[in-house]
Each structure stands twice: as structure tokens, then as C-alpha cells.
Design brief:
Strand content: 5-15%
Family: Belongs to the group II decarboxylase family.
Structural class: alpha+beta
Low-confidence stretches: 62-67, 385-406, 673-682, 696-711, 724-772
InterPro entries: GrpII_AminoAcid_Decarb, PDXDC1-like_2nd, PDXDC1-like_3rd, PyrdxlP-dep_de-COase, PyrdxlP-dep_Trfase, PyrdxlP-dep_Trfase_major
Mean pLDDT: 77
Protein name: Pyridoxal-dependent decarboxylase domain-containing protein 1
Strand order of the largest sheet: 1-7-6-5-4-2-3
Number of strands: 17
Shape: elongated
Number of helices: 26
Distance between the termini: 110 Å
GO molecular function, one term: carboxy-lyase activity
Cofactor: pyridoxal 5'-phosphate
């Protein structure tokens, strides 16, 4: 019975499976992803999967060379997240006491370290989240009926949030999205234009904006000031802004990287004034090199009910446990460790500033050397005839009209410089940024990167060395750009392309015969010519780098010439490009016309052969064409017909008779092919000299230790060569001998001695070969 039951169950299962397949149904297990099938995966497999996802494939190139330096303090911060998960499993009473202790201790330590007395702390993952909560708190504080009436209160008296024009991008839009306010509630305060830093808020203009808003029935709500702007690290005049906010009842919030210097013994007055503001946002994670550490917003407010409604305080233990990683890390570092890391970052910035002052062609955008730990610099070619004291003036204080013409090439060169420095010195954590007034610059912010990357003073010295090594390339390239443009514009069939994003000598495009300058679409014929031109230029093995790409704001192909590290003969470079491109175009045109020429030649040959057959038929007669009769007639009276044929000359594109070939037993020369295009001038280089290098002739580049320079050797070779050629011409022109004067007795004797001793000429020939 048992055996029969098993067989019956097997039959039922098979029939059910067959029914599911017929109905198109799939088993439930097939819809589950692979890792979830079965009884699950072991811990080793799961960790291996995580490691593979973190590091990716070994064949892939690394996206970034920066590696977070996670020391013991970093492991302590990461341990806090794991401990937070374990602590959350405690009973409610123990969990409440523990979280309250962690939150109160961390808040007290941060207040003492950063000199912010009588304040509360809000820990958040998103750096901008704290400011959004502060704005909500300010709305509840200024609008008493906001909890009851909601948006109607805001509609009757619209709130205004003031942001600096130098604030981080997207901050205002983020606040409006979080608060549900229209963009019209934001007010952009411009920076100084006449006096002071161009990255500081214009206080006089701000006061005017506040008065205008009050007159229009609006409510000035909150002002966001910067203690270290996101771009260049400049600090607003926070003391004056605090007085203005107290006058009009505006909430003052401060953020910026310079707030880290509050932990040091000496703090500038502008940064120290931030301790009197209503709230501030700190980011201790990057400052201390701690991964996964939340940001902290310190604020002053006496009503706990409003802070609870605004979301700054919470009764949930999980929200209080956000401070646990920072609570562990601060205890591990101690006050001395915290101050040491911030002080080290400031010393690195000062060390770089002092070194950059000694480097030519480098401009530093700096407001206050003692308060700003951010260094922003850029390469800048000094204008002709400029004052030597011009180097000490920041770029932002130079009139835009004075540097407007060189802005684009300098921006491209600065971007190239920044990318090169990022690759050569990754431990410095450099970033390339574009400023509205100053253009493209390179930023060094050790407070945000030094602790995580482990930047040392030796890395700053290496950075200075790399900058000095790149300066000759930058200056030489910038000097050759104008000469290259003039040479290209003066050369037929070449078009100079002004591409401000290319950091090389320039961009050129060859205009072929069928080129349509008015069209911006791709040109297949031009692309073919530029592809061959690029191949020919790369075969020259010069120091220049050649690339091909689409034209700036167009789809046509161009040749991009890279940067020059030495003096380049621009005229030879442009001439080589023009001649090579013209040769490629003519060869391509010849190949394209070859098919048509051959087709016409074949048709003409067929016509001539048919005509020749008709003439032969009339000459021989009809009887000779009959098979049997023609053979007998040809035997009795053979026809003496000459062999006639045709040959096709591809060079001339015409048919030629082969009679000359059969008579003289040699092939005719035909028409001489056209000469290959060549340059108008040929340059003779010294041994080992690469293409496009200026000749040393006429320069002072002669070795003082050598008795005979390379230039003198080259001149001797030319003189001897010309002398031998002249002698050969006289030997091959005997008809001019009677016109020559009779040789003297001395010359006759010299000739006799030369005939008797021919070996005396060998030293002269050997010397000539050695000089060659």
C-alpha cells in the first residue's frame, strides 16, 4: 500500500506540474532572486558579496585616487553605529537614561570646545537639515498663530530668508522645498563690489533690502551668514550683521569651515563674533577625519515646546543615539587631539600660502591669512608692461576689463593645471572650481581633507614642486597661442578655431574644396582628411600631442594641438599641417576620380577596338572572313598586318597606342606624373633635433667647452658640399673649358703632384664624412 501511495503522489505531482507548465504558471521559487532561494546564505558569503560590491571588478580602473585614511579614531566612530544598534535592544528605562547621558555629554563638550554657551544641539545626517529645522523654529517663533492658521498666516505676511550670493549652490531651493515656501520668499544679498572682499555680503545693501521688505508688508525672518564661504573661505562681517539682526528682529544663522578655528587659542574677531549668533552648524566629521559622523547644529532657544514642534528635539531614543559615534570619538581624541588636528590643517594652509608667494605667475585669492584656512590660487600670465607690484594684488581686485581678454585661455590652463596636480599629489585633496569673477581656480582646503587623507607638510612641499615644474609649460603655451593664431589666419585653406576649453596651443581645421563653412553638421570628407592628417602628424614623433575631435559648438572635425614644453617653431608646424592636409586631399581626390577615369577609358577603348576591327575587315575583304576559304586564301597570300593595341595611362587619364612598345621593344614613358606637394622651404635639422623645434642658428646656445660648435660643423658641411657640386659641374661641362683662362705654373705643378699622389685627397674626404 505504501508503495502504491508513493507512486500515486508522484503521479499527482507530475500531472500538477504539467498542468502548471501548460497554463504558463511558474513556481513561486523561480520568482525569488538567487541569494534568497533555499535556506539562505552563510555569513562568509554575504561578507564576500559586500566586499565585491565595495571594491568592484579588478579589471575596472579606480575612479578616484583618494583613499580615506581610517585610523583608530575612525574605527571608534564606526563602532558607535554598531553599538547604537545593540543599545537600542535595552529596556526602555535603561535606554532612556543612557541616551540622555550621551546627548547631554556630547552637547556640553561641543559647546565648551567651540565657545557656544547656553545652547542646545541637534544632530543630523544631512548637513543642510539643521538649517531647515532652524527656519521652521523661526517661523513658529515669529508667527504665533502658525500652528492654528497655517499657511494663511504666511500668505498675509510673507516671510523673507536672506542668503548671500556667495552661499553654497542649491541652499535656497532646498529650504523652500523643505518648508513648503515659494521661491519668492528668498532674497539674494549681493557681495561687495567696491570695497572689501568680493565674496563678503554687502551690509549696506542688505539693510536697504530689509527696509524695502518691511515697507512692502513682508517679515524679515532669517539671515544666513558665512564663516568661510563654500568657494574661497571668506568670512562675512558677522559682528555688524548681528547688530543689524538685533535691530530688525531677524534670526542669525552662521555656517562655514572657519568655525573650526573656534577651538584654537587665537581666533579672529570676525569668526569669534559667530559665538553670539542665534544658531550655527558644525561639521566635525571632516574636520577631525571621522567617517559617518553627523553634523551638529547649536542653537539658543528657551521654549522647549517650539523646539519639539520644529523637530529640533525628540523623545525617540533612536534620534538621541545619533550622537553616540561622536560621543565615543571625542573621548578617544581628547581636547588636545581635537585642537591638534585643526591646528595642523591651519598650518598646512599657511605653509602653502607662504610658498606660493615666492612662485611667479601664481595669484592667491586671500582675504585674511590668519582667519581663513582655505587657499585658492590660479595661474595668471602678467599683462605686458604691468607694474611689478601687480603680483601682490589679488585677482579679484583687478578690473575685469584688464583681464577679460586672457580670461578664457587662462581658465583652460588652470583647469589643466588643477587636474594635473590632483593626479600628481592626491594627498592634498585639491579641487578645481569656477568662480564668477576670478574664473577657474584651484582650492586647497585642509580642514575638509587633511585629517581624512593624512596630509603632511611634505605633501605641501611636493605640491609646490609640481606647480613649479608645470609653470614653464603653461607660460610657453600661452605665449605661442597668439603666434599660432596669426600663422593659421595667414595660411590658405586653414581655419583657426577659437576653443576656450582647450588648454593647448590651439585648434585648427583644414578647409577642403567642398567644405561648407555655413553648415554646422558633420563633414565625412573633412573627417577623412583630418583622420589621415592626425596619423601623419603622430608619425613625426615630435614632443607635441595631436588629437582630433569635433569643433567647438560644431560637429566638424578639427586637429587639437597640445601644450608645448619648449620653444616651438610655429611657422613650420602650421606649414606642415597645411601641406600634409593638402597632399591627403589631392590623393583622396585622385582615388575618388580613378573609377570615373577608368570607366571612360574602357568605353573609349571599346569604341577604338570596334573601329579597328571594321577597318581590318575593309582592308582584308569579305572572303578572308569565311572559315575554309579564308584559310586557303591566307595560305596563298598572307596578310602582313601590324599588331595594334591600346594602353591606359592612369596618370594622364588617356589611351595610348602600343605600336611604340612593339617596334622598340620598350614601354613608353607616357606623361610625367605631377610633383608631390611639398613645403615652400625645407629645414635642415641638427642631429637628434625633433620636428617643430626652433633652430639654434643665431642663438647663444653654443657650448663653451667645445672648440667647434655644431653650428660651425653644419656650415662647413654645407660649404664643402657646395664646393664639390661646383667641381662636378665644371667636370661635366667641357664646352666651357676654352673660355677658362690658362692654368698658371703653380696650378700645373699642383695638378701633377695630385695625379702622382692621389692618396692625399683621402684626409679631406674623411674629414667631410666625419663632419656629416
Amino acid at each position: 500500500m505504501g508503495k502504491n501511495l508513493k507512486e500515486a503522489m508522484r503521479m499527482l505531482e507530475s500531472s500538477q506540474r504539467r498542468t502548471e507548465e501548460e497554463n504558463g504558471k511558474k513556481p513561486v521559487s523561480e520568482d525569488i532572486p538567487g541569494p534568497l532561494q533555499g535556506s539562505g546564505q552563510d555569513m562568509v558569503s554575504i561578507l564576500q558579496l559586500v566586499q565585491n560590491l565595495m571594491h568592484g571588478d579588478e579589471d575596472e580602473e579606480p575612479q578616484s585616487t583618494r583613499i580615506q585614511n581610517i585610523g583608530e579614531q575612525g574605527h571608534m566612530a564606526l563602532l558607535g553605529h554598531s553599538l547604537g544598534a545593540y543599545i537600542s535592544t535595552l529596556d526602555k528605562e535603561k535606554l532612556r537614561k543612557l541616551t540622555t547621558r550621551i546627548l547631554s555629554d556630547t552637547t556640553l563638550w561641543l559647546r565648551r570646545i567651540f565657545r557656544y554657551e547656553n545652547g542646545c544641539a541637534y544632530f543630523h545626517e544631512e548637513e543642510r537639515e539643521g538649517l531647515a529645522k532652524i527656519c521652521r523654529l523661526a517661523i513658529h517663533s515669529r508667527y504665533e498663530d502658525f500652528v492654528v492658521d497655517g499657511f494663511d498666516v504666511l500668505y498675509n505676511k510673507k516671510p523673507v530668508i536672506y542668503l548671500s550670493a556667495a552661499a553654497r549652490p542649491g541652499l535656497g531651493q532646498y529650504l523652500c522645498n523643505q518648508l513648503g515656501l515659494p521661491v519668492s520668499c528668498l532674497c539674494r544679498v549681493p557681495c561687495n563690489t567696491m570695497f572689501g572682499s568680493q565674496h563678503q555680503m554687502d551690509i549696506a545693501f542688505l539693510e536697504k533690502l530689509i527696509k524695502d521688505d518691511i515697507e512692502k508688508g513682508r517679515l524679515p525672518l532669517l539671515l544666513v551668514a558665512s564663516a568661510g564661504t563654500a568657494a574661497v573661505g571668506h568670512t562675512d562681517k558677522i559682528g555688524r550683521l548681528k547688530e543689524l539682526c538685533e535691530q530688525y528682529g531677524i534670526w542669525l544663522h552662521v555656517e562655514g569651515v572657519n568655525l573650526a578655528t573656534l577651538a584654537l587659542g587665537y581666533v579672529s574677531s570676525s569668526v569669534l563674533a559667530a559665538t553670539k549668533c542665534d544658531s550655527m552648524t558644525l561639521t566635525p566629521g571632516p574636520w577631525l577625519g571621522l567617517p559617518a559622523i553627523p553634523a551638529v547644529t547649536l542653537y539658543k532657544h528657551d521654549d522647549p515646546a517650539l523646539t519639539l514642534v520644529a523637530g529640533l528635539t525628540s523623545n525617540k531614543p533612536a534620534d538621541k543615539l545619533r550622537a553616540l559615534p561622536l560621543w565615543l570619538s571625542l573621548q578617544y581624541l581628547g581636547l588636545d587631539g581635537i585642537v591638534e588636528r585643526i591646528k595642523h590643517a591651519c598650518q598646512l594652509s599657511q605653509r602653502l600660502q607662504e610658498s606660493l608667494k615666492k612662485v611667479d605667475h601664481i595669484k592667491i585669492l586671500v582675504e585674511d591669512e590668519l582667519s581663513s584656512p582655505v587657499v585658492v590660487f590660479r595661474f595668471f600670465q602678467e599683462l605686458p608692461g604691468s607694474d611689478p607690484a601687480f603680483k601682490a594684488v589679488p585677482v579679484s581686485n583687478v578690473a575685469p576689463a584688464a583681464i577679460g581678454r586672457e580670461r578664457d585661455p587662462c581658465d583652460a590652463l588652470n583647469r589643466w593645471l588643477g587636474e594635473q596636480l590632483k593626479q600628481l599629489v592626491p594627498m592634498c585633496g585639491l579641487t578645481v572650481m569656477d568662480l564668477e569673477v576670478d574664473g577657474t581656480c584651484v582650492r586647497f582646503s585642509p580642514l575638509m581633507t587633511a585629517a581624512g587623507l593624512g596630509t603632511r607638510g611634505e605633501d605641501v612641499d611636493q605640491l609646490i614642486t609640481c606647480i613649479q615644474s608645470k609653470l614653464p609649460v603653461l607660460t610657453c603655451t600661452l605665449q605661442l597661442r597668439e603666434e599660432f593664431r596669426q600663422e593659421v589666419e595667414g595660411t590658405a585653406s586653414l581655419l583657426y578655431v577659437d576653443d576656450p576649453t582647450w588648454p593647448g596651443i590651439g585648434v585648427v581645421r583644414y578647409e577642403h574644396a567642398n567644405d561648407d563653412n555655413s553648415s554646422l553638421k558633420s563633414d565625412p570628407e573633412g573627417e577623412k582628411i583630418h583622420t589621415g592628417l592626425l596619423k601623419k602628424l603622430n608619425e613625426l614623433e615630435s614632443d607635441l600631442i595631436f588629437k582630433m575631435g569635433p569643433e567647438y559648438k560644431s560637429m566638424k572635425s578639427c586637429i587639437y594641438i597640445g601644450m608645448a614644453s619648449d620653444d616651438v617653431d610655429v611657422s613650420e608646424l602650421v606649414e606642415t599641417i597645411a601641406v600634409t592636409a593638402r597632399e591627403i586631399e589631392e590623393n583622396s581626390r585622385l582615388l575618388e576620380n580613378m573609377t570615373e577615369v577608368v570607366r571612360k577609358g574602357i568605353q573609349e577603348a571599346q569604341v577604338q577596338l570596334q573601329k579597328a576591327n571594321e577597318e581590318r575587315l575593309l582592308e582584308e575583304g569579305v572572303l578572308r572572313q569565311i572559315p575554309v576559304v579564308g584559310s586557303v586564301l591566307n595560305w596563298f597570300s598572307p596578310v602582313q598586318a601590324s599588331q595594334k593595341g591600346r594602353s591606359f595611362n592612369l596618370t594622364a587619364g588617356s589611351l595610348e597606342s602600343t605600336e611604340y612598345t612593339y617596334v622598340h621593344k620598350v614601354q613608353g614613358t607616357g606623361v610625367t606624373p605631377p610633383p608631390t606637394p611639398s613645403g615652400t622651404r625645407s629645414k635642415q635639422r641638427l642631429p637628434g633635433q625633433k620636428p617643430f623645434k626652433r633652430s639654434l642658428r643665431g642663438s647663444d646656445a653654443v657650448s663653451e667647452t667645445s672648440s667647434v660648435s655644431h653650428i660651425e660643423d653644419l656650415e662647413k658641411v654645407e660649404q664643402l658640399s657646395s664646393g664639390l657640386e661646383h667641381s662636378n659641374l665644371e667636370a661635366h661641362c667641357p664646352e666651357q673649358a676654352p673660355r677658362a683662362s690658362a692654368p698658371t705654373a703653380t696650378q700645373t705643378e699642383a695638378l701633377q703632384n695630385k695625379a702622382q699622389h692621389p692618396e692625399d685627397d683621402h684626409p679631406q674626404v674623411e674629414g667631410l664624412e666625419r663632419l656629416r
